[in-house]
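Name: tRNA (Uracil-C(5))-methyltransferase
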Amino acid sequence: MKSKAPVIKNQEFEAEVVDLTYQGLGVVKFEDFPIFVVNAIPGEVVKVGITKVQKNFAFGRVIKRLKDSPNRNHDVDQDAIITGIAPLANLKYDAQLEYKQNQIAELFKKQHVEAEIAPTIGMDNPVGYRNKAQIPVREVKGELTTGFYRRNSHNLVPIEDYYIQDPEIDKAIIVVRDILRKYHVPAYDEFKHQGVIRTVMVRRGYYSHEMMVVLVTRTKKLQLVDEIVREITDALPEVKSIIQNINPAKTNVIMGTENNVLWGNKTIKDTLFGKQFEIGPLSFYQVNPQTTEQLYKLAAQKAELKADDLVIDAYSGIGTISLTIAEQVREVLGVEIIEGAVEDAKRNAKLNGIKNVRFTLGKAEEQMVAWQEAEVQPDVIFVDPPRKGLTPELIDAATAMAPAKLVYISCNPATLVRDAAQIIENGYHIKGEVQPVDQFPQTTHIESVTVFEKNA
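Structure predicted for tRNA (Uracil-C(5))-methyltransferase:
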């Protein structure tokens, strides 16, 4: 029988930080029992206070740092770390890049899959890059407040500088907050399920500088809406679209399905690879366009596309990959499960005069099987799945179509490594190095590109 944990709540002890978890928490050990500690990095010696004990691990906080790591970044606002906006911001940037490379390498090793992991491609300026913000609105000390939740809690920390967001978006959020305060719009109360404003979302085109403000409300009625709209447009000349998104459900899902255009256009435009994209309030559009261009360029280069290739783009979204590679190949077939994204993709194809791309609405795994049964013979398949990775059915159908290459763009190394084992078993090998790209600096998210080539 397993003995109980060797630590108790509020216990204090000194220890060395030996590792970092995939959530960016420092790991210390007490009699080989792991304790996860916020804002502690490997190589540091800390005095730890135990805050919560589970059966196989515990959580702790740093009471005092007795020895700093040379990799510690002291020049960061602690709010960014305690809220989880930027959980790696306490690490110097080159150490963050190394951490991400090591995370992928360790996972491949554990799965006993041979792979060379290249150094992570980083950003020249790894702050202020996010082109989209979804900021919760709550009442704090009797006042409507915008900020971010403290890690693992529902306590809102008031914040004005979000560190990783476009500074123009940060300014816009303060402007909107102050206007909502002026007109006494009630902030949402999630416990009583009362109040009006739940979230303020702002998107800003990196190249176009067009801005969209979305007010997510619990109720259809928004008081003094004309005055609010007038003040927002007066204060923020970049705004091209103001939308009310209605989310009446008692849920932690941020957006509802109903959108009302309060002013301006229903979309904003931005550019990627010189192509124009229309972005709506619910569109999936990469939040870091600077590295997205690097990521997709790399994926296309590694695919070694040829003019007569037939390409499948699974999880095609609003068509970003499909439309950026279309001119290099004969035809692209895209599949995407979100109806709005498929409509966006078709509109974006039209907007750019691209005629050799066909988008299908459906589940990628089901459509892949359908294409396989219809004896479609793609030369290259791109997959860019959500965090849960690929299904075994999709991998079987994709590899049964025998493309020369399968290019896997991953946002979760754990599912990439799991899927890699099955793809290799189905007659493929990893070509060249797995290439991590730092799409989300200061956070624990890791993007990468892996090319699987059919065995001769």
